Amino acid sequence: MDLHQIEIFCAIVRLASFSRAAEALYLTQPTVSGHMKNLEAELGVKLLDRLGKRAIATEAGQILFRHGARLLEERDRAKQEIGNLTGRISGVLTIGGSTIPGAYLLPPLIGAFKKKHPSIRIQLSIEDTAKITEAVLAGSLCIGVVGARLEEPQLEVHPFQTDELVVAVPRRHPWAGHRAVRPADLKGQPFILREQGSGTRRIMEDRLAKAGIQIADLDIAAVVGSSDAVRQAVKAGLGISILSRRALTDDIAAGRLAALRVSGVRMERPFFVILLKGRSRSPLCKAFLDLVLRKS
What we know:
This protein is of the alpha/beta class. It has 3 domains: about 5-85, Orthogonal Bundle (Arc Repressor Mutant, subunit A); about 90-160 and about 270-295, D-Maltodextrin-Binding Protein, domain 2, CATH 3.40.190; about 165-270, D-Maltodextrin-Binding Protein, domain 2, CATH 3.40.190. The protein is about 45% helix and about 25% strand. The chain has 10 helices and 12 strands. It has helices at about 5-15, 20-25, 30-45, 60-85, 100-115, 130-140, 200-210, 225-235, 245-255, 285-295, and strands at about 50, 55, 90-95, 120-125, 145, 155-170, 180, 190-195, 220-225, 240-245, 255-260, 270-275. It is globular, with a radius of gyration of 22 Å.
């Protein structure tokens, strides 16, 4: 058996999906399916049942998952012990961040860490919260930093830094000189929304719902896949939006955008460091995790 195939198989079982495992491991779905077909042919048993869009391990698959997870842990442990033997931190660190932490919080930490350990290589993936969470669950990322906490029992979760969501409007908008608006005022404005899976959208929906405003109440002008794209759309006059204040700092300072609070609505949110429970961590992963948690 090939360890790469075992890694793919374990990702499918953890995520209960071929397509989600493919996304988490940055593979195509045909590639994932091909590896599983070859693995089943080699073992002479069916490992996965497809029930609609879900993939469930068969009895044989459950046995392979149990042993396969241990094999992957032993692989990581071997790398860790070799790293300890050499007395230096080296290798590739795979980390991921949702849009705001990935763009604004992790790069300075990565720069400081790289300066201290120049021989390492770092792979930073920036996706929405849901995709980063799936990649951590699949084992393709050592550490994730996300903007919303997903209830997932396989995850170890640590609070990180905090953020504030604000209403972003163009500089010529009638609200540009205001400090705050009422929740009900949002209903009459063209609104630019983040995509499903975004931590920003998840928090925004939750907080507005508590103030009596549902997504269906808003005049949605566009649904956009990144905070930067939303910011550009607001500057172009396509509509208003609710975004992280961190993402607006330069535009607010330059007078291109204005930021307002929503009266009576708490829009602060924590970021979270997420890790796969029980996964052994290399000296490289441990060292970066220590740095991140010290900055919490």
